[in-house]
Write a structure and sequence with these properties.
Elements: H1 9-13, H2 15-25, H3 27-60, H4 62-65, H5 68-96, H6 98-118, H7 122-149, H8 156-180, H9 187-193, H10 196-207, H11 213-218, H12 225-235, H13 238-259, H14 267-272, H15 274-292, H16 295-300, H17 302-308, H18 314-338, H19 344-371, H20 378-381, H21 390-394, H22 404-408, E1 415-418, E2 429-432, H23 435-443, E3 448-449, H24 458-477, H25 479-486, H26 493-522, H27 524-545, H28 554-562
Antiparallel strand pairs: 1-2, 1-3
Helix pairs in contact: 2-3, 3-7, 3-8, 3-9, 3-10, 5-6, 5-7, 5-26, 6-7, 6-9, 6-10, 7-8, 7-25, 7-26, 8-18, 8-25, 12-13, 15-25, 15-26, 15-27, 15-28, 17-18, 18-24, 19-24, 19-27, 26-27
Amino acid sequence: MEGGIIHGGGADESAFRECFSLTWKNPYVLRLAFSAGIGGLLFGYDTGVISGALLYIRDDFKSVDKNTWLQEMIVSMAVAGAIVGAAIGGWANDRFGRRSAILMADFLFLLGAIIMAAAPNPSLLVVGRVFVGLGVGMASMTAPLYISEASPAKIRGALVSTNGFLITGGQFLSYLINLAFTDVTGTWRWMLGIAGLPALLQFILMFSLPESPRWLYRKVLMGREEEAKAILRRIYSSEDVEQEIRALQDSVETEILEEGSSEKINMIKLCKAKTVRRGLIAGVGLQVFQQFVGINTVMYYSPTIVQLAGFASNRTALLLSLVNAGLNAFGSIISIYFIDRTGRKKLLIISLFGVIISLGILTGVFYEAATHAPAISSLETQWFNNLTCPDYNKSGMNTNAWDCMTCLKASSTSCGFCSSPNGKEQPGACWISNDSVKDLCHKENRLWYTRGCPSNFGWFALLGLGLYIIFFSPGMGTVPWIVNSEIYPLRFRGVCGGIAATANWISNLIVAQSFLSLTEAIGTSWTFLIFGVISVIALFFVVVCVPETKGMPMEEIEKMLEGRTMEFMFWKKTSTKPVEKHNQSA
């Protein structure tokens, strides 16, 4: 086991202040946190950039534009790569160290970015997405682990939250980059290729930084204890460092007594150990629910959702998505401030309450938009007879029942809705969808819709999306990664973190691969309703299964899991007492 000193409740109130004061008191700790946190930037940039790039990939490759499954494949193959990357990352972290795993992730990400930028066809683009995914998967579980192990207990939550801030900062940056390249030749190639720059930057920075001191200390057979002690002395104050070193030493010695060697990880014991099992239930559950409440449908498909809400222009969709990305980044700053004051569990519960309300708003708005879509004008549609949607002609006497949504869901041929010159909510034309027809519609000062229909409810959809992100980001956005970086015993931390991250990416893949198909099959409103029901289940899971770890040294977290009971009264303050040096296993 490992540990240190638990400070009193009053210290919680100054955790954010103390974290901020590291800028001049101990910039070395911040340098470690932000350099490793660039892994979060890679994660966030890839999540955000593909949503904008996809709009232009569809324009360049007609096979992509007409195939929803292929669009989902381009998005989700990075997630499939991340599943493998996270699984390998857990093993690589324990075998080669946290720093080496980050360097491997950077190389894979850089290689993938180059392949994507040069891709001559959708197949090679998918290959590049797989390599990027491998890098993102490794970085997603390694960065918070490295930061957690190199952080003082009292401000550990705030420092690991910097990784969450850089994830959302990467998403915001990706939308800025998307907007910057909208009028440049090779639009999407620039968007995807420039992603290699932060990977290259982190690769250079990590060469000058040390390995995780806790990982080094466990390598007793390699004689790296003194190296670990030197790093810990740079991280902790002179009053705390010796007690921290003693607690870490006790931890490793206990492991050797229990396992016979601190180098061995017994997978059977991993499943049987009460502390590990309870930690995995909480950690894996949080990672799965983080995805199943729908966040990455919002981030991967944000411009598409904006278009579904009735905003026709690609540029407008990207601009409005930029606002959502900015709110996401703002929410992660809130998390840095409150995570060590309010606590992990309270923040999760407040977050999920807000997410449920927001998804209820989105469900209602998209239902109203679908049931009040503009009608199809027979006169407008047949004005150019050769442009009329074939399904409209086949419907015969039933054309009076057609509206914009019916037009966009035409099965035999891709069709679009050209709004009326008298107003976008007035009856318009249902024509076949291609670039020539789109240009003809625009020449008559009309708007062209292929993803969603014009609606008076569009701004309410944006309000719902904004509320969703503001509530999600500080809690469900950052806390699952923080909990998973601190809840497992040291000897199992790499493996368990890899298991949890792999569960996150598998859930991510399921959601990313199914979202557009769900919206086409059952409608956008019912899709968001499903996410809302899952969010209610997630709320009950957090109340029952997730412990509060605020301000606790990792030694105490392990002890707490050993004797944990179901605690529903999460609002009560946990008593905090100094941790005594001991040689007893949890």
